[in-house]
């Protein structure tokens, strides 16, 4: 939700400052995982340690006449499918030298009120049997589905949706260690929709419960991966391209990804101008350094842009937060926050990628 909020906020800010030419580009960068694995852990086994529990129950019923009360059900996901999907996603990440799978359930004492944590003895036995360095165990997978059918009278057709929230639990086990190294409680959602002229046709095409559980279980297996492995993120960035010859010429270099020459011209603009034009130049310089992967310099220039924006928008004179009165300060502050998050993750990311530098 925060990402959407930022996009809408930036769109509004740029509309307010529409007298200044603005261009958009995309940037890909890697973020660190929540869990850091020592480089010595090269072979991992993904195991199914989820209990085989009975199907759960619906919590609310719906009728087509009252579409505001959808059919909501709790399900136990297919742990075998989720384990296979988790193993496949880890293998595709090419982070570990070897990923093996044991998708048969290890848990023999199903209890819907608890999860069976592997003992140190069980972990050591599995590690030796599978010839791996450690285990990643899927220990629970819960699905919460909401199925809704509505008749849209203005359009003359039926509209059906199925929204499933998935909650996989994964634990990491190291040999000769009492208790898990870490626990990942993931959550995400998957969505289906269909339209049809009749309710029966809609029911025939809208995903049924069996297929829903299958697809949602496979999806749930992939959810913990971003917590376990470094991952790529794509975001939009913006730069200012008008107002002077230097800014226009620098924009040409920026489109060609010649960031060194663009930064030179933006710095000339920064030294010559004051107020908004100086702020735009500082903002652009920050972007140039980010595109060169120099996050420290990027953050320094973004902070300069933020300080100028503070004066431009007269923030110290404001008595309340209002985006229409402080568009430049909000714009630069959002960028500062994003760069700070990147900088804070760099040390952890470098440590997580060290295994590849050693090779």
Question: Could you characterize what this model shows?
Answer:
The chain is of the alpha+beta class and 359 residues long. The protein folds into 2 domains: 2-25 and 236-358, Serine Threonine Protein Phosphatase 5, Tetratricopeptide repeat, CATH 1.25.40; 43-229, Double Stranded RNA Binding Domain (2-Layer Sandwich), CATH 3.30.160. It is 43% helix and 25% strand. The protein contains 12 helices and 10 strands. Helix 2 packs parallel to helix 5 (209-222), helix 8 packs antiparallel against helix 9 (275-291) and helix 9 runs antiparallel to helix 10. It is globular, with a radius of gyration of 26 Å.
Task: Supply the CATH architecture of the largest domain.
Answer: 2-Layer Sandwich
**Mean model confidence by pLDDT:** 87
Report the C-alpha radius of gyration, rounded. Answer: 26 Å
Percentage of residues in strands: 15-25%
List keywords for this structure.
single chain; 359 residues; Double Stranded RNA Binding Domain; 8-stranded mixed beta sheet; two-stranded antiparallel ribbon; 12 helices; 10 strands; globular
Layout of secondary structure:
Layout: H1 2-16, E1 22-31, E2 43-48, E3 58-60, E4 71-76, H2 79-92, E5 98-102, H3 120-130, E6 134-152, E7 157-173, E8 182-185, E9 188-196, H4 199-205, H5 209-222, H6 225-228, E10 231-240, H7 245-255, H8 259-272, H9 275-291, H10 295-312, H11 327-352, H12 354-358
Parallel strand pairs: 2-5, 2-6
Antiparallel strand pairs: 1-10, 3-4, 4-6, 6-7, 7-8, 7-9
């Amino acid at each position: 939700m925060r990402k959407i909020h930022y996009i809408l906020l930036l769109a509004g800010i740029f509309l307010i400052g529409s007298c200044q030419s603005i261009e958009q580009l995309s940037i890909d960068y890697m973020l660190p995982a929540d869990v850091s694995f020592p480089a010595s852990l090269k072979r991992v086994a993904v195991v199914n340690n989820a209990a085989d529990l009975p199907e759960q129950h619906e919590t609310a019923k719906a009728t087509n006449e009252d579409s505001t009360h959808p059919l909501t059900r709790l399900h136990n996901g297919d742990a075998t499918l989720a384990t296979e999907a988790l193993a496949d996603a880890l293998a595709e990440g090419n982070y570990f030298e070897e990923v093996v799978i044991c998708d048969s359930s290890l848990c023999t004492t199903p209890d819907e009120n608890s999860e069976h944590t592997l003992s140190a003895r069980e972990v050591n036995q599995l590690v030796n049997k599978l010839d791996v360095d450690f285990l990643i165990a899927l220990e629970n997978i819960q699905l919460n589905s909401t199925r809704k059918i509505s008749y849209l009278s203005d359009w003359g057709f039926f509209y059906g949706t199925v929204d499933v929230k998935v909650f996989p639990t994964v634990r990491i086990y190291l040999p000769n260690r009492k208790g898990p190294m870490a626990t990942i409680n993931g959550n995400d959602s998957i969505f289906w929709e269909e339209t049809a002229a009749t309710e029966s046709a809609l029911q025939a095409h809208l995903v049924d419960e069996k297929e829903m559980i299958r697809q949602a279980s496979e999806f749930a297996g992939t959810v913990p991966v971003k917590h376990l492995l470094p991952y790529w993120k794509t975001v939009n960035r913006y730069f200012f391209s008008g107002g002077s010859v230097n800014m226009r010429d620098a924009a040409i270099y920026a489109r060609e990804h010649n960031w060194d020459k663009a930064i030179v011209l933006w710095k000339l603009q920064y030294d010559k101008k004051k107020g908004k034009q100086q702020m735009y130049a500082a903002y652009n310089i920050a972007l140039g350094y980010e595109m060169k992967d120099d996050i420290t310099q990027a953050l320094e220039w973004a902070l300069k842009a933020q300080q100028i924006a503070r004066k431009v928008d007269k923030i110290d004179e404001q008595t309340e937060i209002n985006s229409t009165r402080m568009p430049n300060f909000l714009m630069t502050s959002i960028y500062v926050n994003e760069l700070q998050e990147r900088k804070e993750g760099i040390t952890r990311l470098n440590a997580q990628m060290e295994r590849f530098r050693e090779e």
